Amino acid sequence: MSSVPFHYVDLRAFCYATEDEKRVEDALRTFLPEEFEIDRVVNAGHHGDRIVVLSARVERADDVRHVLSKLSDLAEWDRVLAELDERVDDNNSLFLRLDKQAAFKGSAELGPGITFRAKVEAYPAKHETAVKNARETFEELAEEAGESGSAGDAGGEAA
After folding, report:
1. Among residues 108, 16, 18, which one has the least CA distance to residue 53?
2. pLDDT in the model for residue 130
């Protein structure tokens, strides 16, 4: 992927009192470049329980490419592409929710736990242009994932 049509990517996860903060951080790090800085904010829930918000903003093009390469493992590309118009808001931000448990195990799946928000480049800054740019990038990622998946499967076939 040569060009990156995103200004930045924000990743955020909540660590509740019942969770191990190190494990939640490890889940978030699944998508981040090595030794990337994670911001940590301690909050209190409605009943006084401790909630730690872990977040990172990825702005450098190489780092954004790294995050996107981790997303290429998504099995649900058809669903993401079908819902893309709803996943991009009026401010040209694209939203995905990624499964925290799967991320802790090193894989990318849609689900609860990690919020992925990417500001899509769009000139002119219109919803349709942002959706088109995001679609082109995600179709390329889905294609890459399909190629790597089929290459791995081909070696296991019997003659």
Report:
1. 16
2. 95
Please give the helix or strand (H or E) that residue 115 lies within, else none: strand 113-120
Distance, in Å, from the CA atom of 148 to the CA atom of 54, rounded to the nearest integer, reads 31
As given in the structure block, the two tokens for residue 145 are 């994932």
**Distance of alpha carbon 126 from its chain centroid, rounded?**
22
CA distances from 72 to 29, 53, 77, 139 (A): 16, 25, 9, 10
CB 42 within 8 Å of CB 55: no
Q: Helix (H, G, I), strand (E, B), or coil: what is residue 145? A: helix
Predicted structure pTM score: 0.87
User: What does residue 28 show for φ and ψ, rounded to 5 degrees?
Assistant: -65, -40
Q: Read off the pLDDT of residues 71-125 as tens digits, 9 standing for 90 and up.
A: 988 989 899 999 999 999 999 999 999 999 999 999 999 999 999 999 999 998 8
Kindly state the helix (H) or strand (E) to which residue 104 belongs, with its residue range. helix 100-104
| Residue 53: both structure tokens together | 């918000």
Domain map of the chain by residue range?
6-153
Q: What is the CATH number of domain 6-153?
A: 3.30.1440.10
